[in-house]
Write a structure and sequence with these properties.
Layout: H1 2-18, E1 22-25, E2 31-32, E3 37-45, E4 52-62, E5 77-82, E6 95-103, E7 111-123, E8 128-132, E9 138-142
Parallel strand pairs: 2-9
Antiparallel strand pairs: 1-3, 3-6, 4-5, 4-7, 7-8, 7-9
């Protein structure tokens, strides 16, 4: 009986984690320019639409000697923090999204930088807080 409860709990966790938001762009390898605008797209798969959205943060941090920091250690310099209102009225698309234009810091060093997306929502019948930051990032080249 205990094994069955553990299996059900593990399946619930796996399902929840599989239903997370995505970063449409920028994508790893894209070029961005210091002091200029960068378009970012946050995508919400249909499977997580039952999540009560709290907000997102978009950030950027230079990599040092080709090694980028772990997003679990912070968002870097925050370019946007606040709510997001994803568009759910796009025919033929199985997800909703919102586009943002943020300005890359003018003093950001040239070279690789990690663009981070942090997301907080409340999910499930008990409105469990889901904070996600890993695997929702892109390594961009600042030129």
């Amino acid at each position: 009986m205990i094994f069955k409860r553990i299996a059900v709990f593990a399946a619930g966790i796996a399902t929840t984690l599989a239903q997370t938001i995505e970063l449409g762009y920028p994508q790893s390898g894209d070029n961005s320019y210091s002091g200029q605008g960068l378009d970012a797209q946050v995508i919400l798969p249909v499977s997580i639409e039952g999540c009560i959205q709290v907000g997102i943060a978009l950030g950027i941090k230079s990599c040092v000697d080709g090694s980028c920091f772990d997003p679990a250690d912070g968002s870097g310099s925050v370019l946007y923090a606040g709510p997001w209102t994803h568009d759910t009225n796009t025919p033929g698309i199985d997800s909703s999204y919102q586009n943002f234009t943020v300005t890359i810091l003018s003093d950001l060093a040239q070279g690789l930088a990690i663009f981070t997306l942090t997301h907080l929502c409340l999910i499930g019948a008990n409105e469990f807080p889901l904070l996600e930051y890993q695997y929702r990032n892109a390594t961009v080249n600042i030129v």
